[in-house]
Amino acid sequence: MGNDWLLVQDALIIGFFATCSGAALAFLYQRRKKAKAAEPASKAGSLEERVEVLERIATDRSLELADQIETLRYSQERN
C-alpha cells in the first residue's frame, strides 16, 4: 500500500500544478487579449498622423522636384 499511496500523491501533485499552470495561462491569455483590444485605438491616431505626413512629403516634394526639373530644363535651353 505504500507504493500505491506515493503514486496517488504524485498524481495529485501533478494535477495540482497542471491546474495552476492552466489557470495562469488562461489569465495571461485574457490579459494579452485585453491589451490587444486597446492597442488599435491608440495606434489609429498615430497611424493617421503618419499617413498625413507621408502625403505631405509626397505632394510637397513632388512639386518642388517638378519645379527644380523645370528650372534645370529652362537653364539648359538657355545655354
Topology:
Layout lengths: L1 H77 L1
Description of the molecule:
With 79 residues, the chain is mostly helical. The protein has one helix and no strands. It has one helix at residues 2-78. The N and C termini lie far apart (109 Å). The model has no long low-confidence stretch (mean pLDDT 79).
Task: Summarize this structure as a short list of keywords or feature phrases.
single chain, 79 residues, mainly alpha, 97% helix
Structural class by sheet pairing and helices? mainly alpha
First-last Cα distance: 109 Å
The radius of gyration over CA amounts to 33 Å
What is the number of E strands? 0
- Number of H- or I-type helical stretches: 1
Please state the average pLDDT score: 79
Outline: rod-shaped
Give a quick account of the main beta sheet: strands, pairing sense, barrel closure.
none
Helix content: over 70%
Low-confidence stretches: none
Strand content is under 5%
In short:
The chain has 79 residues and is mostly helical. It is 97% helix and 0% strand. The chain has one helix and no strands.
